[in-house]
Amino acid sequence: MSHHIVEAQNVSYMYPSSNHGIENISFRITHGESVAVVGANGAGKSTLLQHLNGFLMPNEGHIRIGDFPLTKENIMSVRRTVGMVFQDPDDQLFMPTVYDDVAFGPLNLGLPQEEVKMQVTDALERVGASHLHQRPSYRLSGGEKRAVAIASVLAMSPDILVMDEPSSNLDPLARQRLIKLLLSFKHTKIIATHDLDLAVDLCQRTIVLHNGSLTADGPTSEIFQNMALLAESGLAQPLRMQSCPICSNNSPPDT
Amino acid sequence: MSFLEKNFLDIRNLDILARQTSWVHRVDPRAKVFTTLVYILMVVSVDKYAIAQLVPFLIFPVVLIGAGNLPLGYFLKKIALVAPFAILLGIFNPLVDRTILLHIGSLGVSGGWISFISLMLRFGLTVAGALILIAVTGFNGICLALLQFRVPRVFVTQLLFLYRYLFVLIDEACRMARARLLRALDARAPRLQTFTSMLGYLLLRATARAERIHLAMCCRGYDGNVRLMTSSNFQLSDVLFVTSWTSLFVLFRMYDMPQLLGAKALEVLL
To answer: Quick one: which of A53, B140, B184, B243 has the most CB atoms within 10 Å?
Structure first.
């Protein structure tokens, strides 16, 4: 038995007030895999992510986390297994201080206070934010907020990390630090992102969504060299895979 | 910078002040919350014509500002900012109550003016007391104390969230106001139509954010109860803080200290 497997079987979901949603999506992500979910704006990345911890329930199909299908009954245990890092850290850091924020999850799990303290200290150390523990969350910089948001999820010891745009609004150095940090994690990782260079750094596998459907699922290096697929899906090659507009005589590719 | 940004965003400075380590800051939050509550009750219940009796109550904010290393000017500004509300409440007293109660030389002072001054004094003292409480305890500490006083969890949670997201909301409102200002070069105040649509948009933004926050809470096992780490070490010094201050306040409330002292001084002199 493994808790680290995420499987979608013919998942479809339509938002009640519009025609947008996701349609007939299937994939299986196994233990320790790191998978990027890419697609243009409105392709359905966030909708798919919200299915993985039971915030949205599919109209058709099933999500399986570990060996069990995700249902309303086992939602709490699934949410413990799947840790979700939000796009805007301000949505995730709602407690008055960093320490309280990171302690929120473990306290809800009913852990004794001594254990909570250990988890909080450990999680903050892992993201290099121990020195921030007494600071109010809203006074942190963008990079610090992101680190604390990740710590608040780590403190619940999840097996699977789901992240929505982890590198958005970060300065280049903070982005590099984040990539290093994420590389050090052994969790199964599912990362929805527009930052395709980050996907190349972190993920061996990439899932491409377009207009709510899955258009490709395979090794990252292969997908980002398939120019026709990228163009069809409203994407462009990661910058590092494009030829340098200064050194090479080629003009930059049209996007 | 707009009026909103200048005057409300710096309320956050109270939290910075609360991170100091003076002896006042180290007193248990429960002791400070209880003492301030008694203080406010005593100040408010003083008779409406008794101005002199209110003066001794100044000692509480003065001592706390001194010992807590707080900036006096900052508090005076904050009190002045909300003073118009109190002025509005009391300004009709002099018109309604015209009985002459006091003569200064040939000038008669009516009961209305005295009660107006007393109202302003009480307003200043209580607002100062509350602001100083936040500046020496921190909002988080106050909420924790309320929780330990068995105030229903749902109220304390509301307070915590109000304080956390008030600034985010004000930030969003400021950004919208700035965006409008940049494209409405000559218009000083927004037209009613623009204003209502801005207000509606702000509500939508706030609702969307509330939904995302709720989702984030659910992801971390929220079940309707916000749990806070509590530490309970009420020490002898905290007991002393409460008993000495509250007994002083009761004394000030029961006896008109300036009058008593004045009478004693006269006795000695004559």
So the answer is: A53
